[in-house]
Amino acid sequence: MSSKSINLTLKVWRQPGSKAAGRLETYQADNIPTDASFLEMLDIVNQRLTLAGKEPIAFDHDCREGICGMCGTVVNGRPHGPERETTLCQLHMRHFKDGDTVVIEPYRARAFPVIKDLVMDRSALDQIIMAGGFISVNTGQAAEANSLPVPKDKADLAMDAAACIGCGACIAACPNASAMLFTSAKISQFALLPQGRPEAAKRALAMVACMDGLGFGNCTNHKECEMECPKGISISNIARLNREFIKAALVSQEK
Amino acid sequence: MTWLYRTLSTSVGKKQLMAITGLLFLLFLCTHLLGNLSIYGGPTSFVSYAEHLHALGNLLVAAEVIMALALIIHVITAVVLFFENRAARPIAYNVDKSGGGRTFSSQTMPYTGLLILGFIGVHLATFSHHIVDQTTRNIFLIATDVFSHKGYLAIYLLGVIIVAFHVRHGLWSAFQTVGANHPKYMPFIQKLSIVFAVIVALGFGSLPLVVLSLR
Ligand code: FES
């Protein structure tokens, strides 16, 4: 397979530690095969930096197949780069042109402090999950499938919401650094299914309260989150969160 | 009642306050425009509309009190949201590009809102029956006086355009916030936002021109 290669100028956020000051450093990334993924491009740059005795660029990643949600930085002002519904690990260098300047920054949010370079502490999202992103049932034998009928359209909507990989791109994209799309996807995936209904009110109140306490901003319906979400999560989930929250606050027994 | 206070202080609660008061303002814009369109029937129909409106007495006072309360809630909540949202991103991006979600209207909401607040002040100071004496001059004569003044005319037209931009994001946004996002209606509501903004701009914007042409 013949592969083209391109030369890029990278401007990468370098920050030695969470307390240290950071700044954009410029690197020349020559001879990058266009078949490489964005993270592989960083691997190549890091190998060269290491061989030159320099500190490699720290960045987060795990599965590299678009399902774990660990990767994610802001590339030229866009979380996960310019391609729609594509995680950074699935973004390929063929989407860049020879001679491009690529600015790579961590997500910027008070709730996501930078640990090092492009690595952010996104555990705030885990805290939101721990506040109510689960159902309390005893595990055991799988229940007989037909004992709990789920309409196909509801199952599909729940699955769409459950596609969220928790990467945090919605927060990075939101001009207010709001975590509403993430939280709404987690609330929706349960609220849509009979198994999630018993705790729906408690869950909505607890997850919103937790989200608010973590320093995220407020949703003002810019819709940037939906545009940047690598899994195409729709803001109709945010409307569902709003409904679930209003219902829980005004008519449920939950306090 | 602590649960109510707690509910309204959450991020979703604050957005509900913005949306519900915003929807009230949209309703007000509709009645205000419909009423004032009576100018198209000539000065007598315009003056008669104003007299009938004032004849509502306490009903009108009640409406004014509700609007004033809604305004106070809308503005205070907006200020809180504005500062919270700024604090949520202490370090700005070096490069910040839109993925295609935000619009000029959505990004300028706090600023158009502030300008509208100023405009409401000027508008009430020049037209309200609480401030401007309407016993010696009827509303048509007052309007002619105000709009003949180039500066006021410019402020009014600018004000109307700013309101239109605010409404263009505010209308659909309010529906989304109260949870009314439905695949059957949302595309319509989003288009309605734009259409309503244009109606506001053209409808209110045309009023001074009609007034001046009837002078
Ligand atoms: S590394 Fe797992 S989604 Fe990108």
Tell me, briefly, the overall form of chain B.
globular
Name the assembly state: heterodimer
What would you call the shape of chain A? Answer: elongated
Low-pLDDT runs of chain B: none
Q: Report the count of strand segments of chain A.
A: 7
Associated small molecules = FE2/S2 (inorganic) cluster
Rg value of chain B:
19 Å
Question: What share of the residues of chain B does DSSP label as strand, in percent?
Answer: under 5%
Beta strand count of chain B: 0
Strand order of the largest sheet of chain A: 2-1-5-3-4
Distance between the amino and carboxyl termini of chain B:
56 Å
State the domain count of chain A.
2
Report the CATH superfamily of the largest domain in chain A: Alpha-helical ferredoxin
Write down the overall mean pLDDT of chain A: 94
Topology as H/E string of chain A?
EEHEEEEEHHHHHHH
Total of domains of chain B: 1
Terminal Cα separation of chain A, in Å? 62 Å
Helix content of chain A: 25-40%
Low-confidence sequence ranges of chain A? none
What about the largest sheet of chain B? Answer: none
Written overview of the protein:
The complex is a heterodimer of chains A (255) and B (215). Chain A has 255 residues and is of the alpha+beta class. Chain A folds into 2 domains: 5-115, Beta-grasp domain (Ubiquitin-like (UB roll)); 122-134 and 150-254, Fumarate Reductase Iron-sulfur Protein, Chain B, domain 2, CATH 1.10.1060.10. Chain A has helices spanning 38-51, 123-132, 152-162, 169-173, 180-191, 200-213, 224-228, 236-251, and strands at 5-14, 23-33, 74-75, 78-79, 101-105, 114-116, 119-120. Chain A has a 5-stranded mixed β-sheet. A two-stranded antiparallel ribbon of chain A has the order 6-7. In chain A, β3 and β4 (78-79) form a beta hairpin. Chain B has one domain (11-90, 108-214). In chain B, 77% of the residues lie in helices and 0% in strands. Chain B contains 9 helices and no strands. The model of chain B has no long low-confidence stretch (mean pLDDT 92). The longest helix of chain B is centred in the middle third of the chain and has 30 residues, at 58-87. Chain B is mostly helical. At the A-B interface, α6, α7 and α8 of A face α2, α4 and α8 of B. The structure holds FE2/S2 (inorganic) cluster. The site of FE2/S2 (inorganic) cluster has 14 residues of chain A, from loops.
